[in-house]
């Protein structure tokens, strides 16, 4: 039995009885540690580890918290350790700082792909001082999973002023089995939702004003960064109702310069090569996993096979019509009803990842999301090809590291198509 004083300190200070009696999910540890399994997860697709790490939601990610810091959590599990932990962290965040102005959601690509601290600071530089940001991403999250989180797990008064949904085509592929969604919806936590119970028993004070989108009704701003000159022949014409801004080289250089200023160079001795390298992944108090590893193709492919997109299970079969699109439409309509601007960000990929097969599917996805954004009234920001040859921004060919996450945050902060004024 731990001394009550130590437990109280671990729970964030105050008496033990105070922490045990609060209806809010109790305070959380200052650092959540994730450790990747030493043996890479494999399935019938035989895809590369960098592809499978994107699917570690199914079986490949362990979450470890020291016993002394392990928070008291009374709500039944959602059969997703990271979702359970994110709920505890989010509750603690709201208790300390209130409901965030900006909520980042997505899969593991967003978990390590959008740095909330850098985004907060970059927005301050743009005149949006005091904006709070939380990254509520869950490994393996598809559109269906995000729908559950936003509409069922959280209550309307626990939602932000603006939602940034960051991910890629896999989250919208209705052709694949959605194992994460199936696991969550069969969990005791999900069953408890049906009774009207919610994981976070916290009712923040409602703001005195209403949240208004800066977009006029029916107007959608679509942000399309340039495809490198080598790939200009691959561009396809996409009719859209409103093209408010196109990424220029100056935009990208500005974001990159801000990133270089924001993050110091890592210790070269601390660099690990390969997405499946077994090292602790720390999630900070804002829900973000900062990954130091830099993608180095030569050493990477000495460890992992180079598998063509023809054999990538993320695209086989590939269908953008179905349950994931239905969930996306539901999310967009729900956000509109709540007066919350919704921004979808297609996260960066490397040129190494985009072989002809993947390029073909990603172009389909880009066109589809542009059209869906127009139809449903959300903002689409396409950064998928913004830094194709900046391997230092990536952990592996399809996951960005903390340097890429900072670049993404800086790029979003200066993007005029995003209605940041909603955060005021």
Description of the molecule:
The structure is a single chain. The protein has 424 residues and is an alpha/beta fold. The protein has a single domain (28-423), classed as Rossmann fold (3-Layer(aba) Sandwich). It is 33% helix and 11% strand. It contains 14 helices and 12 strands. It has helices at 4-10, 16-21, 49-52, 81-97, 108-111, 116-125, 143-153, 179-185, 188-193, 249-262, 297-303, 323-338, 356-376, 402-413, and strands at residues 32-36, 61-64, 102-106, 133-135, 162-167, 222-224, 245-246, 280-283, 342-346, 379-382, 394-396, 399-400. The strands form 3 sheets. A 7-stranded parallel beta sheet has the order 4-3-5-9-10-6-7, with helices on both faces. The chain has a 3-stranded antiparallel beta sheet with strand order 2-1-8, with helices on one face. β11 and β12 form a beta hairpin. α7 (143-153) packs parallel to α12 (323-338) and α10 (249-262) packs across α14. It is globular and about 50 Å long. The termini are far apart.
Named CATH topology = Rossmann fold
The chain-level mean pLDDT equals 76
Total number of helices: 14
Radius of gyration: 21 Å
Task: Give the termini distance in whole angstroms.
Answer: 47 Å
Which structural category fits the helices and strands? alpha/beta
- CATH level-two architecture: 3-Layer(aba) Sandwich
Q: Give the CA-based shape.
A: globular
Q: Fraction of residues in helices?
A: 25-40%
Strands of the widest sheet, in order across it, are 4-3-5-9-10-6-7
């Amino acid at each position: 039995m731990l001394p009550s004083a130590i437990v109280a300190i671990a729970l964030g200070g105050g008496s033990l009885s105070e922490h045990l009696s609060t209806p809010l999910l109790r305070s959380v540890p200052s650092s959540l540690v994730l450790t990747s399994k030493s043996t890479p997860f494999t399935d019938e697709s035989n895809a590369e580890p960098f592809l499978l790490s994107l699917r570690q939601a199914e079986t490949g990610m362990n979450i470890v918290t020291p016993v002394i810091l392990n928070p008291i959590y009374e709500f039944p599990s959602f059969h997703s350790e990271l979702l359970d932990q994110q709920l505890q962290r989010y509750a603690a965040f709201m208790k300390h700082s209130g409901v965030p102005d900006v909520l980042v959601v997505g899969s593991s690509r967003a978990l390590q792909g959008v740095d909330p601290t850098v985004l907060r600071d970059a927005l301050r530089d743009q005149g949006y001082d005091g904006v709070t940001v939380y990254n509520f991403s869950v490994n393996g999250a598809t559109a269906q999973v995000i729908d559950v989180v936003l509409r069922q797990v959280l209550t309307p008064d626990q939602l932000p002023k603006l939602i940034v949904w960051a991910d890629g085509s896999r989250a919208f592929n209705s052709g694949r089995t959605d194992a994460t969604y199936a696991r969550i919806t069969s969990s005791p936590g999900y069953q408890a939702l049906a009774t009207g119970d919610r994981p976070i028993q916290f009712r923040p004070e409602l703001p005195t004003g209403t949240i208004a989108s800066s977009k006029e009704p029916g107007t959608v701003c679509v942000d399309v960064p340039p495809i490198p000159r080598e790939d200009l022949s691959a561009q396809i014409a996409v009719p859209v109702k409103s093209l408010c801004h196109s990424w220029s080289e100056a935009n990208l250089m500005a974001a990159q310069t801000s990133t270089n200023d924001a993050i110091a160079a890592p210790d070269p001795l601390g660099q690990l090569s390969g997405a499946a390298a077994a090292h602790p992944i720390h999630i900070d108090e804002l829900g973000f996993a900062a990954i130091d590893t830099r993608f180095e193709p030569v050493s990477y492919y000495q460890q992992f096979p180079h598998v063509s997109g023809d054999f990538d299970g993320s695209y086989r079969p590939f269908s953008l019509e179905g349950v994931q699109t239905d969930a996306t439409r539901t999310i967009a309509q729900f956000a509109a009803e709540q007066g919350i601007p919704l921004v979808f960000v297609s996260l960066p990929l490397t040129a190494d990842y985009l072989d002809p097969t993947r390029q073909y599917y990603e172009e389909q996805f880009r066109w589809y999301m542009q059209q869906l954004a127009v139809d449903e009234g959300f903002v689409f920001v396409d950064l998928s090809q913004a830094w194709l040859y900046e391997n230092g921004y990536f952990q592996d060919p399809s996951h960005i590291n903390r340097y890429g996450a900072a670049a993404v945050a800086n790029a979003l902060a200066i993007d005029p198509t995003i209605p940041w004024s909603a955060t005021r």
